[in-house]
Amino acid sequence: xxxxxxxxxxxxxxxxxxxxxxxxxxxxxxxxxxxxxxxxxxxxxxxxxxxxxxxxxxxxxxxxxxxxxxxxxxxxxxxxxxxxxxxxxxxxxxxxxxxxxxxxxxxxxxxxxxxxxxxxxxxxxxxxxxxxxxxxxxxxxxxxxxxxxxxxxxxxxxxxxxxxxxxxxxxxxxxxxxxxxxxxxxxxxxxxxxxxxxxxxxxxxxxxxxxxxxxxxxxxxxxxxxxxxxxxxxxxxxxxxxxxxxxxxxxxxxxxxxxxxxxxxxxxxxxxxxxxxxxxxxxxxxxxxxxxxxxxxxxxxxxxxxxxxxxxxxxxxxxxxxxxxxxxxxxxxxxxxxxxxxxxxxxxxxxxxxxxxxxxxxx
Length: 363
Fold this sequence. Notes:
The chain is of the alpha+beta class.
């Protein structure tokens, strides 16, 4: 925004300090003058007792004013100079934290997010502002780094199906007698994977922008719908799904919350013990939150590995590509949707193997 040039804050504070000091001085001198007028008569008679009498009436107040006025003016001039110099120094000391905050802001606008103010001293308004700004920079730096990793991983994931498609087309061009049906099937599978990845990326973007209408949602009904949808997949993998819970009201997007639940359930089915796995889906209410818990059996996971599962394109212990592996955005989408609904997501490894994922949303 273009603004007209104006006085600096330091100069304004200096003039304010000096003006206040001058006003206080004027009031003090006025009080002194009123006090003197109250106890000093307007005229006085001088009676002499020596041999040369000089009896007469003299204007005492007029003489007092002649003596008081120049000295009062000198005092006011001193207060003006003292107020300007002292105000300039005090304003500079008071605004020093603002200068450091401004410098940090300029660095941040030029892309340097690693700089921190770290304002010393005891807590006050300026220190609180500086600490808040440091916290904001730290979160912004982490968010930018996460977005860069996300963009790099997304580019890699999108490049893979495109590269496969190009390779298949090159092979078909070099070998016209190749089975076209097989080529079409492989191209269809690769193209489907690319479409799924693109739709997942769009879903993440939509959730991050919170461009959805909130309405009442019962998480227990959402869990039942997701279970019915994925029941054939669970039967194919030999996984048993057990559901339970009471009515669990919350507010949000029904479509996004269904996607969240479906992703959690799909992840629990795919990453489970083959042929003998179990998934537990439960919903419930707490004093201020609605809770959805999805727990599954599976391989033992370390807390360090579990903490990375919500990052984009993380698929357990390695980057795998199977028919049911998904596009690597399942839990990343769950995390994004949870945060978009002002909720919390907790991942806890089970001691017997597998993982427990808890989503808490405002009631």
